[in-house]
Amino acid sequence: MTIEEKTVSNDQILNSNNEFWIFGYGSLIWKPPPDFDRRVPGYIEGYVRRFWQVNRNYSEDHRGTPENPGRVVTLIERSLWDTLMDHHSVDDTVWGIAYRIESSKVENVKEYLDIREINGYSVHQVDVHQSTPNSPTIKAIVYIGTPTNPQFVGNPPPNAEELARHIYHSRGPSGENRDYLYQLHKSLLELCPESSDNHVSDLQHRVSLIEKTDRMESHENRKPISQTDGTNYQEEVEKLNVSG
């Protein structure tokens, strides 16, 4: 079954209990949808989270411009990811938040999400495993920018250092692209001890190093960066390239 065949129509968005759940794995973690009455940390299997989706300024979370679009996360089926030459290590699960929407608000929230996720995303259905042991799985919808959408930039996968620099230098009406990365990294660490993401953590480390070096160089009373500082930065980057 291809990923396109897994898309769901509007009349399939309710689960067997006539509940509407949405799984957030990006900005929905810290910017939840309106009118939810339950918020459940959990994870899905069979997917890989990557910063391989272009974010232009016509989406709600503007992290770039048409000339220099930012990068946001999407999900790639693990079976497809296995065929790509991605040097980042992979996690067995993708952690995020499942939100249950009040029954009387489902139509309005679905319309809101369709607008919010207009940037190349389509609706799919997933099983969310709750963080609480022995809890039942939740059937939820999720918005995914599939590899066939025009905003996907993961085939071939981008170089990790080049991707980090692109994120660092991108900004839009909603702010710095790197703030999206930093907030996602922070939000994942706060979910539970198992909810970190190797790809997100690696990019966060790389972008933080770039930002630290940039601040040192641009400080108004700066002194020339010592050879030791430069060496440390290069050593950190080389370590990341080897471990990633």
Short synopsis of the structure:
With 244 residues, the protein is of the alpha+beta class.
Verbal overview:
This protein is an alpha+beta fold and 244 residues long. Helix content is 32%, strand content 25%. It is built from 6 helices and 9 strands, in the order ββββαβαββαββααα. It has a 5-stranded antiparallel sheet, with no helix packed on it. Strands 3-4 form a two-stranded antiparallel ribbon. A two-stranded antiparallel sheet has the order 8-9. Strand 8 (171-172) and strand 9 form a beta hairpin. Helix 3 (160-169) packs across helix 5 and helix 5 (198-218) packs antiparallel against helix 6 (227-243). The model is unreliable at 1-6 (pLDDT under 50).
Which key features would you list for this structure?
244 residues; alpha+beta; 5-stranded antiparallel beta sheet; two-stranded antiparallel sheet; 6 helices; 32% helix; disordered N terminus
* Strand segment count: 9
Share of helical residues? 25-40%
Helix and strand content put the structural class at alpha+beta
Q: Termini, distance in Å?
A: 30 Å
- Stretches with pLDDT under 50, minimum 5 residues: 1-6
What Rg is obtained from the alpha carbons, in whole angstroms? Answer: 19 Å
Strand/helix succession: EEEEHEHEEHEEHHH
* Order of adjacent strands in the largest pleated sheet: 1-5-2-6-7
Average pLDDT: 85
Annotation field: number of helices = 6
Rough outline:
globular
Largest sheet: 5 strands, antiparallel
